[in-house]
Write a structure and sequence with these properties.
The protein is an alpha/beta fold. The protein has two domains: 510 residues, TIM Barrel (Alpha-Beta Barrel); 70 residues, no CATH class. Helix 6 packs across helix 7, helix 7 packs across helix 10 and helix 14 runs parallel beside helix 15.
Amino acid sequence: MDYDYNRFLSSLAKSQWERIGLKRRAGVAVPLFSLYSLSSIGIGELRDLKLVVDWCKLAGMSIIQLLPLNDVGFNFTPYDAQSGFALEPMYLAIESLWGVSLKSLESFGGEIKQLRKSFPTGGRRKRVNYKIKQAKLDLLWKIFKDNQEFSGEFKNYIRENKFWLENYALFKVIKERSSESSWEAWDKPLRQREPIALSRFENENSEKILFHKWLQWQLYEQFKMVKEYARSKGVLLMGDLPFLVSRDSCDVWGRQDYFKLNLASGAPPDMYFAQGQRWGMPVYNWDKIAKSDYDFIKEKLKYAEHFYDLFRVDHAVGMFRVWTIAMDEPLAHAGLCGKFDPQDESVWEAQGRRLLSVFTLNTRMLPCAEDLGVIPYCSFKVLEEYGIPGTDIQRWMKDWGRSYDFKPPEQYRGASVAAISTHDSSILRNWWDYEAGTVDGQLFRRKCHEAGVHFESVKDRIFDMENSLHGRLRWKGQVHSPAVLLNALGCQEERCKDIVNLYRESYGEKKKFCAYLGLVDEPKDSCPNELIRKAIEKASAASSIFSIQLLIDWLSIDCMCRCDDWNCRINFPGTIQEKNWSLVMDLSLEEMLDLPINNVIRNINTRASRS
């Protein structure tokens, strides 16, 4: 690789690179809720991450990238958390609680056993049963009540985290007393944070408020132990700090002037989401936050340092500008009728520089940017200059606007994380089976309408409708040139240029991908293991300083993960459904440690000079 990695040592993130060690690394990305060990109760627990560390050592990796672990309330959407600080209590290992006597735990042994029986892990269970959260909270409350002698460490924790902890615990209990309704529906005195009302409520609910502080302390202690274990094994933990927080969060309720509550965040239309996306989280009021010297950001980074060595800057392009939708815009319009904030493109780079400086200069963790989607050029420039790795996704690394061939590994950015899938995309196997060589049906219909083409009258001439699944339209083989397409559409290229662009982006995609991988023949059936292995080898060989793949993709090299249907993915962006954020792995962590494929993965990383 001819990329000069010494550039990192003259960048804004110089101290972070020196701290973690400047070398090519391999890693695995996984949500904790998808994992389980033989000791887990209903869902992956923090202590289970030690087994992931052990697996990484066997597989020749040194990074574990986690999805957000913030408290999600009962919404169970990691990127719509109730707090940018607090961790999710359902990930606590009850049998590893701090400051709880063994005698006390033994007295709850029957209830712990019943909880494990009611919420089993393993077997053919494909989805998390999120009822585990309330069941765990109920038992944790009993244990808390039985252990009222609090240590000095707990008291110190409360004092040191006053910036966010007081507000968070109060918010949680008000929500409980309000049947989990949004803070915007609370009685006016509590909604508007009138001091007398808050003081009265706090006095009347002091024990419950203390309980939520105790839960966060327990999470803090258990997670710190995981980080210490990982460090002893030479493995780095990468956290995911959501760029935005839920509208119904303690952060928004407690600091309402830090947010533009008349706007909802989202994303503009693109080739995968014809109507764009409306996420719903409010947009930051950066001018207000700046007047407080970015205390909210600095304190969040300070707390996360206890757990992570690196952190993923979710939606990093939002530092430069955010796609916003007015709150009174109909939900059916998704992100179609939005605009960027700020609207003046000339200020984007300056804003991005300022905010990314705050995120880099106020932490020991190395920031890594999720810079996907519609991206302003200034984003690439600033990330490169600051030494912050971006994200290069294999299926989207193409010679756009010209040949549309896949870019060779040496053309990936040195300052990047090379990956073949994300938690918001299909896994590689399903991309090949269902998406490669297709176009988004809704987007294509819209472009036909704009060009004055009647879709229903032409679809059977250009698409294999029988094999067009899950909203994706698959081209017929005989539509082998733009001229053939235009003839079938009965349209001139000038009028149908957007349709022609969709064609050029997608037609023959499988053939081009096989050429990129060095496969002579294009597989005709379902995605073969050889294709997955070669795709991962290509990503591992990339110029990117990091290569981090989803656990599902790693295990798919040798059919160790039975994810072969469309619904086998972590999230379907822009949708609300039970299949989101609930996928469970086929194998326990103990089983993963004994897989023969571990040596195959290790060899891939070794040949790519990664560790």
